[in-house]
Amino acid sequence: MSHLFYQGRGRKPVLDQARGVYMWDTDGRRYLDGSSGAMVCNIGHSDETVLAAMRAQMERATFGYRLHFETEASEKLAAATAARMPAGLDKVFFVSGGSEAVESAMKLARQHALAVGQGSRWKVIARSPSYHGCTLGALAVTGYSSLTAPFAPMMREMPKVPAPRAYLDGLDPEDPATGHHYADMLEARIEAEGPESVLAFLCEPVGGASTGALVPPAGYMERVREICDRHGVLLIMDEVMTGAGRTGAFLGCEHWGVRPDIVVLSKGFAAGYAPLGGIVADDRLVEPVLDAGGFAHGFTYAGNPLACAAGHAVLQVIEAEGLIGRAAEMGASLKARLERLMARHEIIGDVRGKGLLLAFEFMADRETRAPLPREWRAFERFVQIAYDMGLIVYSRRTRDGIEGDHILVCPPLIVIEPQLDEIEETLDRALTAFAAELPA
Ligand code: PLP
């Protein structure tokens, strides 16, 4: 009997080893990590540069409380991170994961508003569907009702606007009018709430688990930035999944040349080598907060030297191995393969994503875009079939505006063509086996 519990009672094989894009369980079975865990292990498993940096840090010091010491590891990582940001975003605050980072971004935004005499601003508008974390504050900005509903009495739900689901609404994603259509819903919401009450808009540049790699239509991100500026609303970019190169740019928002006020990082930031997250904020936001007495926020493990040493080495590997360019290149190849699978398998209704943040969505009917019946639990079943064939992919069934089962295929950015062949071939077999099981 295990003393552990996570989401349910189901037990999984026991992980023994992981190297590159492969993982082995204690029975010696091999798995291709086609989702980088949960879109985390961007540089692959057991990278020697990162392990060496962590060993070296471990020999020096494994903990130094942030109110007692600075550490070289956190200073170096902060500098390397700031160097990767759009100009002016150069104040870094470390945490241990994505939810903590989202909380930190919202609290910094609020403290800035107070410091500059805008205490009436407190609402953070987000999108539906969306996922920004599982702590109560992050859930309040999450548009995923099955996750938020049980906790509704314990949190203050924040306003939501629809995600830009052009592919479901039959709108042309290349037409800027489409992007403006969805962005203008944000403006309408700000006006309905009262602009003087709105603190920030929080979104992912490319949707992650909640929307299955939804890429915003042309014109959307730029218009969102304009709308935020017009109403004095801060733009917080949740790059927890998209950051650190996954979409083929260091930050997903770079694809549209949009400069956020606060960037939220985790997952690929330390690529699974240590629990690490962070926010990077505009200097002009942070200075008034520090002048007004400081940021009233901080976790005990913030800036943990081992996590920061891992993060710094991960950034070095990303640079040295040109992994951002590889994400774009391998992503284009994998997307073409997913499109080939869509041509062969009727059940796939959409393929989407950017770089190596890619997904396909099951549909009962491509014409009407009708989803598979919810009770089929297609997302779970398909993942299990692929898993049993030695391929790990990630899936979700969403509602809240995008009703459907999507499968994320997001291998580490070090993936090479023969491994993409293996992913395509296994998905092909898994799709055939899955389709054979479906009710007529
Ligand atoms: N934000 C986004 C976009 C995420 O995808 C996630 C996790 O999946 C989070 C925040 C929360 O991160 P964590 O699970 O590390 O708390």
Automatic annotation (TrEMBL):
It comes from the Bacteria. PANTHER family: AMINOTRANSFERASE (PTHR43094), AMINOTRANSFERASE CLASS-III (PTHR43094:SF1). Its cofactor is pyridoxal 5'-phosphate. This is Adenosylmethionine-8-amino-7-oxononanoate aminotransferase. It comes from Salipiger mucosus DSM 16094. Coiled coil: none annotated. GO terms for molecular function: adenosylmethionine-8-amino-7-oxononanoate transaminase activity; pyridoxal phosphate binding. Its EC number is 2.6.1.62. CDD domains: OAT_like. InterPro entries: Aminotrans_3, Aminotrans_3_PPA_site, PyrdxlP-dep_Trfase, PyrdxlP-dep_Trfase_major, PyrdxlP-dep_Trfase_small.
